[in-house]
Automatic annotation (TrEMBL):
InterPro entries: Cro/C1-type_HTH, Lambda_DNA-bd_dom_sf. This is Helix-turn-helix domain-containing protein. Residues 84-130 form the HTH cro/C1-type domain. It holds the Pfam family HTH_3.
Length: 144
């Protein structure tokens, strides 16, 4: 017949293992959940960093479609920095003169032509009207 002390030790060890198993399952579930959250946060961080790189590289191109979705009432107006510079040269005007016709500052025209910024919808409409203008009409607008 086994000693009562050894039986008691074995029973205590068995119950302790049973308790540990339950707590260990909880910890494993928590660890799995935390790993999933960490992976999700890493993916989100990577997507945000990618978006920042795109905006820094593209000069805010991703903001333009958001504006276009909001301003669906008018026709879609195109804009290119080279096109504005070519239009200005075709009319034989300085950047300050074009700025006066469009109702903006000369610095705005310079930044649009260099591609650093993009004009807002209101200015895009004025630039569209400038495209349809001839030299005489542009000079008349400047004189007025």
């Amino acid at each position: 017949m086994p000693n009562i002390g050894t039986v008691l030790k074995q029973e205590i060890a068995r119950i302790a293992r049973k308790e540990q198993r339950g707590e260990l399952q909880q910890l494993k579930k928590s660890v799995a959940q935390y790993r999933g959250q960490i992976a999700q946060l890493k993916r989100r961080l990577q997507a945000l960093e990618q978006q920042v790189r795109r905006q820094a590289r593209g000069g805010g191109r991703s903001a333009a479609p958001a504006q276009a979705r909001e301003d669906d009432e008018g026709p879609q107006l195109r804009f290119s920095a080279k096109g504005l510079a070519a239009q200005r040269k075709r009319l034989g005007l300085s950047a300050a003169s074009v700025a006066k016709i469009l109702g903006v500052s000369a610095l705005s025209v310079y930044k649009w032509e260099s591609g650093k910024t993009r004009p807002r919808a209101r200015q895009l409409e004025a630039i569209s009207a400038l495209r349809k203008m001839g030299k005489r009409e542009a000079m008349a607008r400047l004189a007025a």
